Each structure stands twice: as structure tokens, then as C-alpha cells.
Amino acid sequence: MTCSQPTVPSPARRLLVPMLAVVLVSTAFMALAAAPARAARLITVGGITYSVDTSAPGSEATAASYEHDAGTDVTIPASITVGGTEYPVTTIGDLAFMNHQLTSVTLPSTLTTIGDSAFAHNVLTTVVVPPAVTTIGRLAFVDNPKLTTIRFTGPAPLTFAGDDQPYTLWAANIQLTVEFRSQYLAAESWLGFTTPKWVGYRAIPAYSISFATGDGPAVDPVTVWPGEVPELPTPARQGYTFTGWYTSPDSDTLVDPRSPLTADITAHAGWRPVETPVAPSTPAWTSLAGGSLNDFLRLVLQPN
Predict the structure, then answer these.
(1) What class is the 209-273 domain?
(2) Which of 103, 110, 221, 283 is most buried, taking the most CB atoms under 10 A from its CB?
(3) pLDDT in tens, 86-108
(4) Which InterPro entries does the entry mention (predicted)?
(5) Rounded to an integer, what distance in angstroms lies between the CA atom of residue 65 and that of residue 96?
């Protein structure tokens, strides 16, 4: 009967084991340092549930889901307040408002991202996209059979599943119109909006009217969206009467707001000085101090 001798670790192996232990411990500490603890919370306000990282005050909030019985007209706020801290709403998550029979939605100016299928399977008719939106996900508005207009108030989104996925807004073969400001018109779709088509959708630019008032008060320009008739402002100027907006400084032709625009234009204010009425003169009377009525009549009837 023979007894087996115990295996004695080699010097190299005895050195390798503690080195591996040190590496594993160091890696664990590095992972903890690289991934700080996050305290994401779900907060429901007005029927909308938001995901908020309350460990980072002032960080961005995401609209994550919607209560089915909260109504068909939705207004997403620009921010929510949790524990006295305000969090801007910048993202609408994937599937957040899908299949809720929504008829209208108002998006906040703080919004930057609309997730995949965020508003799919509803009955929206028009959507106004805020200027800060840079990303619209796949199938974001698919299957909204009454959707006819999507209005972009800012630049074309940098990420948009249009060419690759023709059903992002609805479907490229239906009568859906994309409206955009003419200042964002470009020669190629990857540079901005194009017309008459943009990534498969009918696209129409909206033009602006700027106002030249001369020595009158400044007036902000207006954007005239397709099919709309703008209400032109009526400025006031001390000592002058406003006579209307003209096509050029020396023109007698008034700008017709009902006429469709084909380019950006400048309207020129007409001014007419206010005429100051002249007071009638008062006849001078001759003093008859010390005289009698007969003296007065004698002067009037017989001046010479």
C-alpha cells in the first residue's frame, strides 16, 4: 500500500493566486466607482407616469406611461416637481402613450426625444413638434388613421426613421402633410427639410412676414402656416396715424393677408401725421371805458 504525497504548489502558482485576488478586488472597486447608485422613481402626475432620478436634483424626467382612463386630450408639462425640486420633461419613452384613443396631444417646449411607438395606435389629427426635438423613434405615430398634419416648429430632427422606416409618422402613402418653417429648407433631407417631399412625406414650407415700421415701434415677425390667414398687427406711433402695411416703402399697394405666400416677405408700415386743429380767432373789442351806450352806437352806425 502506497501513500500519495501531497501536492506542493509551485512558487509561480503561489504568487499568481494573490495577484488574481488583488485584480478582482480592484476591478470590483472600479465598477462601483464607474456606476454610482441611482434612485430612479416612478411618479404619476395628471395620469402620466414619469421616471425621475431623484438622486440628481434637476435632472431630466421621462414620460414613461399613461393611465388609460385619464382622458383622450393630453397635455405633457414642461416640468414636474418632486419633493420641491423641478425636473424638466425631455423624453417620451417607448410605447408611453400607445393605444389610448388619444385625440390630441400637446408637447412641451423642453422635449428632445420621442421614443419608438410612443403615440402609436391612437386617433390624433394633428401634431405640433417643439423646436428642441432632435430624435423621433421608429413607428412613433403609426396607425393614427385621422392624422393629416405634423408641424415642425424647429429644425428637422437629427435622428428620424423616415427613409428606412416609412411608417414613422404614419405611412408614406397616405395624405399626411409635413409643415416646417422656410428657414429650415435644405437641398437634401440629411441637411434639413425638403419640398415637395421629405423622407417620403408631402412637405410644405411656412413663410414669414417681417415688419418694417420706420420710426415706429418694433413688431415681431409672424409665421404663416399653410392654409392659415394671419392677423396683421396694428402698431401705434405718437403723432401719427397708422394707415396699413404696404408691399414696399413707396408703394400704395397693401399687403393682402389672404394671399398665399410663396416666399418670406417684408411689410412696410404706412404713417400719416396727425393734423392739429387750429383754434378760431377771437374778434378784438374796442374799449369804451367811460363812454355811454349812445357813444357806442354812434361809433358803430356812424364810424366817420
Answers:
(1) mainly beta
(2) 110
(3) 999 999 999 999 999 999 999 99
(4) InlB-like_B-rpt, Listeria/Bacterioides_rpt_sf, LRR_5, LRR_dom_sf
(5) 4
Q: What are phi and psi of 44, to 5 degrees?
A: -105, 125
The one-letter amino acid code at 222 reads V
Q: What is the mean pLDDT of residues 26-54?
A: 70
Closest CA to 177 of 155, 152, 157, 207: 152
Q: What are phi and psi of 20, to 5 degrees?
A: -65, -40
* Dmax (CA) of the chain: 177
Give residues with Cβ within 8 angstroms of 286, minimum separation 6. Answer: 299
CA quadruple 150, 155, 161, 162: dihedral sign: positive
Q: So where are the chain's domains?
A: 40-199, 209-273
Report CA 46 to chain centroid distance, whole Å.
Answer: 22
- Cα–Cα distances in angstroms (integers) from residue 63 to residues 8, 70, 107, 135, 170, in the given order: 62, 14, 11, 15, 21
Domain 40-199 falls under CATH 3.40.50.450: no
pLDDT-derived band at 43, boundaries 50, 70, 90:
very high
Contacts of 194 (CB under 8 A, 6+ apart): 185, 186, 187, 188, 203
The type of residue at 85 is: T
Report field, pTM of the whole predicted structure over 0.85: no
**CA–CA–CA angle 92, 96, 101 (5° rounding):** 120
Residue 171 · residue 150 · CB < 8 Å: no
Dump pLDDT digits (tens) for 149-207. Answer: 999 999 999 887 654 455 667 665 567 899 999 999 998 888 899 999 998 888 999 99
pLDDT of residue 34 exceeding 50, the answer is: no
Copy the grid coordinates of residue 232: 396683421
